[in-house]
Design brief:
It is a single chain. It is globular and about 40 Å long. Helix 6 packs across helix 8. The chain is α/β, with parallel strands linked by helices. Helix content is about 40%, strand content about 15%. It has one domain: P-loop containing nucleotide triphosphate hydrolases (Rossmann fold, 3-Layer(aba) Sandwich), CATH 3.40.50.300. Strands 3-2-4-5-1-6 form a six-stranded parallel sheet, with helices on both faces.
């Protein structure tokens, strides 16, 4: 199965191929079509199996349609928020979502908020954010949020969200501590579970990692999962620096880039 079989827009597929992704992982094959169909989704998947792009790819499609969708992505910490923002910035360039000459679409631009529960509550308390009109909620991942002792903050956020929305939740493992809050978030979800014993899903092939547009990276030897995680962190920082340098975000999507505990506005890019 290829990315073209998953229902993605041609521009998204072009970006995926140009960035070096060769074929979807199992979690991407299962999650991408379900998101595009508007389903609630609960996914149990191990780390480093491609789950972040499993929701970024279809959300980019949704954002590019300029239908005024409001998307909230709740992460375990600010470091992961920046990681996700980097990827949105790269794909935003391919879709040319920020078209300054398209005045008719400006009022229908998507708003994307990416933050940890504690930072969200802080900005809501300061009247910097209004989450009462969110259309799509992504929680990535609820087990890490539990480990960071942020479940109580997550529940406070859920109380301010509308009932009628699409809900997408990821976790590395199911736990009793998160079941009550999952029941509050999800409505008859499609449940997707990736077998953690499959070697092909525990580590993405190094050749499937994305490259920055215009770069030609040499073939890399296979490395351990620990070394690959360190390389990903370094690559994400480079992507963030490039996004700032070339102003990939423009003035629209995503609406916020969260770095540590600072809310950075578009004017800073």
């Amino acid at each position: 199965m290829s990315f073209r079989d998953l229902g993605l827009d041609e521009k998204t597929i072009h970006a995926i191929e140009d960035l070096g992704y060769q074929e979807p992982t199992t979690v991407q094959k299962d999650v991408i079509p379900s998101i595009l169909e508007g389903k609630d989704i609960f996914t149990i998947a191990p780390a480093v199996c491609g789950k972040t792009c499993a929701y970024i790819f279809p959300l980019i499609d949704i954002i590019s349609k300029n239908e005024g969708q409001n998307i909230l992505i709740i992460t375990a910490d600010s470091k992961e928020s920046v990681n996700i923002s980097d990827k949105f910035a790269i794909f935003n360039k391919y879709h040319e979502i920020n078209d300054e000459n398209n005045d008719s679409a400006s009022t229908l631009e998507a708003n994307v908020i990416i933050a940890s529960p504690s930072l969200l509550l802080e900005n809501i308390a300061e009247n910097n954010l209004d989450i009462s009109n969110i259309n799509i909620l992504v929680v990535d991942d609820i087990n890490l949020i539990k480990k960071n002792r942020q479940l109580e903050n997550l529940e406070k956020i859920l109380e301010q969200l509308p009932a009628n929305k699409q809900n997408i939740v990821f976790t590395t493992r199911r736990s009793k501590e998160t079941q009550d809050i999952l029941n509050k978030i999800l409505k008859t979800p499609a449940e997707i579970k990736i077998d953690k014993n499959k070697e092909s899903e525990l580590t993405e092939d190094i050749k499937n990692e994305p490259q920055m547009p215009g770069s030609s990276a040499p073939e890399k030897p296979r490395v351990s999962k620990y070394a690959r995680k360190r390389a990903e962190v370094k690559q994400d920082k480079k992507a963030l620096d490039l996004a700032r340098k070339y102003k990939i975000f423009g003035k629209s999507t995503p609406a916020f880039l969260l770095d540590d505990t600072t809310l950075i506005s578009e004017s800073n890019f």
